[in-house]
Automatic annotation (TrEMBL):
The keyword Nucleotide-binding does not apply. SUPFAM superfamilies: TPR-like. Residues 673-696 have a biased composition (Polar residues). It comes from Mortierella polycephala. InterPro entries: Endocytosis_PI4K-reg_protein (IPR051722), TPR-like_helical_dom_sf (IPR011990), TPR_rpt (IPR019734). TPR repeats lie at residues 799-832. This is TPR-like protein. It comes from the Eukaryota. Keywords: TPR repeat. It holds the Pfam family TPR_16.
């Protein structure tokens, strides 16, 4: 029968209303449709039955206080479903449709049967599954010819109801096939739209993925989850967010398992590890996909999560953050933008949790990895204070038997978790922040926890080893910084004792032997230190600081040629051997260690072959410096969380820009300006007329001239040396937009980057001063002064700059100006041993014995306790004042120190902690 134009318009609008679930319009549309099409009674009553079912479901959920949030706890074995309705509430509508079922066209009858099946499935009738099967028995799903419009939606509904029925009957494989058919239909017909289609598609895709997980087919589940996700991008933003959050939770876990399974898969090997579409299961692709899903999970979960009440724990947020952290460890921490994105994600979690120790723990480790050490210290203190209060209020010893899932739900920290934070805190204090007292406190508390509560833990050996190492490092730092000489031996003895305990626990760990060797070297126990460092190298032949320390130990025994040979051997073991690699295959820290080793090699070369021969190695150091302090490849670029097509609610995509890192410290006023104004020595730093100021035999950008200008030079006043490569990189490298990034207005540089810039400045100063020292010994005073000018421009607050300037003027017999330079150095670093010694020597030479004794005793009691020169001049002071016994002791001690003095300071050349 051909419909009239009016009937066709009404049918089109009626079907559109059904597709949009506009139930309020159904009665009027049904009346008008039947009026203009007598054969439309089946379609009209089908719609009225849909309306009755929907209204009954809404009323039932309200009566039972059921909400979609129940889906947040879904597992593959247990999926939350809407409560069944009382069959009596829709019985009248069912009977009306059944009575007229035979009066409509065959097409309307088939689709009406799907509606009846959907109504039967929604009820709590005992025979509901049998009735569903009865209604669908004569219907081909999917049909041979796919319909369009609302009839397409009814096909998806029929397949979904069929699948859910089979699922309840325990016929899981058949149910999955039905759900997959919905997936195929939807993907093959992207132009079909509608709220009801979204609803049935979501049901089918959600249950398909979960059932595949129940069958332990993770790859098939991932494929279903991917289809769900691609469809979800087209759904309204607030559509079934609880189910989305639940699905993304399981999706993330499935991706993690896939990453573990295919982490060793080599795409170029040709191995068929994945049956199809292998590129989607490569580790790199999986890592990016995990980052995306984490973001969507966070988005969905936070949309349905509120700040907890006093008696609540937002354990779902805790679980999510833990999964994100674990996945980041699994896939690698990525670049700086990724690390920042992780920190920001954890900070956001604090807005949905209240005083969560777990969140604080994650935040602490993330901040340390990011290099924001000042914030990490505050977080560490907050965490430890919280744990101390918790222990006072309630003992958690009895909770050690809890599983990790139970701990997450209760937000309870295990003794292992607490101990790992203490150990990492100790490492942070001693390695990055230089606070030995705090490091010692953390290490001791960690050791107490291990001995009392973790003796049976599988990682007890590693925990003890680390705790003892950092305890030893803290003792060693305290001893080095001690101003009371009577305390120093005891602290050094404790440091050695702790390291011996660490080595006894894990003798195969090379770093324990290395740290022991350094500690013994600092104590001038050269023989034992040499044995320890050789043991370290036998366990790890690529460890550059161990090779470096061995070279220094040989130099302390005045075996300079052997030390130089060791340098050559050790440098070849490094990935930073520029003759073999591109210098970027290793980390920044290894690069700095390599440069420090090359610097020692240059000093040894100078010692053996003389100052003139030292210029060429020094020239190469400047080129190496620019490569070492260039930005690390993984420190730049966008975060892998920066997915442009992801829609973020309530967050604008804002480009994050880092603040410019400052090269060098603020310039201090030069004391030499006073000398210039007095008119004395104003020619010392000026180049002869017509001479080129860039005449050094080492490569350099140009010469700054703050020292020269303070003496009277004006030609080079405006010239500036470019910032070190590290500083320049921090100043100009953009931070990419991170998917998980909040839009802060200012992005301050991390503590790590600031400290690295400071190290870069210090190394550059050292290189210029090394050149200055070489030129001074060659009698090239003008070039020496220019090198000092460059060093002063990099960091005018570095005491070594002014000390070297003093040596330069002393070499020119200008003792007054030299004394002024030493005084400037001491104003910047009151305990600078070399400067104190020079000033003490000056007092001795001028007959001011009391002044000389005072400053030299201060030196030998504090940081200059191992300065042979300081002890020598102190002995001469005692000799001049007729205290021969004291003089003899000092002179013998000076001789002993000189006989074991390395070519460069042990602790300034190699790191105390690995």
């Amino acid at each position: 029968m051909t419909l009239s134009a009016k009937a066709q318009v009404i049918e089109r609008d009626f079907q559109n209303a059904r597709a949009k679930a506009n139930y309020a319009a159904f009665p009027e549309f049904a009346r008008r449709y039947v009026k203009h099409n007598k054969d439309g009674i089946v379609l009209a009553n089908s719609a009225l039955l849909e309306m009755a079912v929907a209204e009954a479901e809404i009323a039932t959920r309200k009566a039972q206080q059921w909400t979609p949030l129940a889906s947040l706890d879904d597992t593959p074995q247990s999926l939350a479903v809407s409560p069944h309705i009382n069959p009596d509430t829709i019985q009248e509508a069912v009977e009306k449709l059944e009575r007229v079922l035979s009066k409509g066209p065959e097409e309307h009858q088939e689709f009406a049967a799907i509606v009846l099946a959907r109504a039967a499935f929604a009820t709590s009738a005992p025979d509901r599954l049998q009735r569903v099967a009865h209604y669908l028995q004569n219907i081909q799903l999917p049909p041979a010819r796919i319909p369009t419009g609302y009839n397409f939606i009814l096909v998806a509904c029929g397949l979904t109801i069929k699948g859910m029925t089979l699922e309840e009957e325990g016929r899981i494989p058949e149910a999955v096939v039905a759900y997959d058919n919905v997936s195929f239909l939807v993907q093959a017909n992207p132009n079909e739209k509608g709220e009801e289609l979204n609803s049935w598609t979501e049901h089918a895709l959600y249950r398909a993925g979960m059932l595949k997980l129940r069958q332990h087919d993770h790859l098939a589940a991932i494929r279903s989850f991917r289809v769900y996700h691609s469809q979800a991008l087209q759904w309204p933003g607030n559509f079934r967010l609880a189910r989305r959050a639940s699905l993304y939770r399981h999706f993330s876990l499935a991706l993690s398992e896939a990453f573990k399974s295919f982490g060793n898969h080599n795409p170029s090997s040709g191995a068929q590890a994945v049956p199809d579409d292998q590129s989607h299961f490569y580790p790199a692709a999986l890592a990016v996909e995990m980052a995306q899903i984490h973001a969507y999970w966070e988005d969905a979960l936070y949309a349905v999560t509120t700040f907890p009440r006093a008696d609540e724990k937002n354990w779902r947020v805790l679980e999510m953050i833990e999964r994100i952290v674990q996945d980041r460890r699994l896939t690698g921490l990525g670049n700086d933008a990724d690390k920042r994105a992780l920190v920001e994600a954890i900070y956001r979690a604090t807005q949905k949790t209240f005083q969560s120790p777990r969140i604080l723990r994650f935040l602490f480790f993330a901040l340390v990895e990011m290099g924001q050490y000042d914030e990490a210290e505050l977080t560490l203190k907050a965490y430890l204070d919280m744990m101390e209060i918790t222990l006072k209020v309630k003992s958690i010893t009895s909770d050690e038997a809890l599983t990790n899932d139970q701990r997450v739900r209760l937000d309870i920290e295990s003794e292992y978790d607490i101990t790992t934070v203490m150990i990492e805190g100790s490492r942070l204090y001693v390695k990055e922040l230089g606070k030995p007292e705090d490091a010692l406190s953390c290490a001791k508390n960690a050791l107490d926890n291990i001995h009392k509560k973790l003796q049976q833990h599988e990682d007890v050996a590693l925990l003890l080893n680390n705790a003892y190492k950092y305890e030893a490092a803290a003792y060693g730092m305290q001893a080095a910084n001690a101003h009371e000489p009577e305390k120093r031996p005891g602290l050094y003895a404790k440091a050695v004792e702790s390291l011996e305990k660490a080595i006894k626990i894990l003798p195969e760990a090379f770093d324990g032997h290395y740290m022991l060797a350094l500690q013994l070297a600092e104590m001038r126990d050269i023989a034992r230190a040499t044995l320890a460092v050789k043991e370290s190298l036998s366990l790890n032949t690529t460890h550059i600081p161990s090779w470096h320390l061995l070279a220094l130990l040989l130099s302390s025994q005045k075996e300079y040629e052997r030390a130089l040979d060791i340098c050559a051997v050790g440098l070849k073991e490094s990935d930073w051997d520029l003759a073999q690699t591109d210098a970027f295959s290793a980390s920044q820290a290894e690069g700095e260690e390599y440069l420090a080793f090359r610097l020692t090699q240059a000093v040894l070369h100078d010692k053996i072959y003389g100052a003139e021969a030292a210029l060429e190695p020094q020239e190469a150091l400047f080129g190496l410096y620019t490569k070492v302090f260039a930005p690390e490849p993984n420190s730049m670029g966008d975060s892998m969380y920066d997915i442009r097509n992801i829609r973020r609610r309530d967050q604008s995509e804002v480009d994050l820009t880092s603040s410019i890192a400052v090269t060098g410290r603020p310039r201090a006023g030069s004391i030499l300006s006073v000398r210039s104004r007095n008119g004395t020595g104003s020619d010392a730093g000026q180049a002869p007329n017509g001479s080129n100021s860039n005449t050094l035999d080492i490569p350099k950008p140009n010469y700054a001239s703050s020292i020269a200008s303070s003496i009277g030079s004006t030609n080079s006043r405006n010239r500036r040396i470019p910032p070190p490569a590290a500083a320049a990189a921090h100043a100009h490298a953009p931070l990419g937009r991170s998917l998980l990034s909040l839009p802060p207005t200012v992005q301050r540089p991390t503590t790590k980057s600031v400290m690295r810039t400071a190290r870069a400045n210090k190394v550059l100063v050292t290189l210029w001063l090394l050149s200055a020292s070489t030129f001074r010994r060659l009698g090239r005073m003008e070039d020496a002064l220019k090198a000092i000018e460059e060093a002063e421009h990099v960091d005018a607050s570095n005491a070594d700059v002014w000390y070297q300037l003093g040596l330069l003027y002393a070499a020119q017999s200008d003792q007054d100006t030299a004394f002024i330079s030493y005084s400037k150095a001491l104003a910047l670093a009151p305990y600078h041993p070399a400067c104190q010694t020079r000033v003490g020597r000056s007092y001795l030479e001028t007959g001011s014995l009391e002044m000389a004794e005072g400053i030299l005793e201060t030196t030998t009691k504090s940081h200059g306790w191992d300065s042979a020169e300081a002890w020598l001049y102190l002995g001469k002071v005692f000799e001049a004042s007729a205290r021969l016994s004291r003089a003899k002791e000092c002179l013998w001690y000076a001789l002993d120190l000189e006989s074991s003095k390395p070519i460069r300071s042990f602790t300034e050349c190699v790191p105390r902690v690995q």
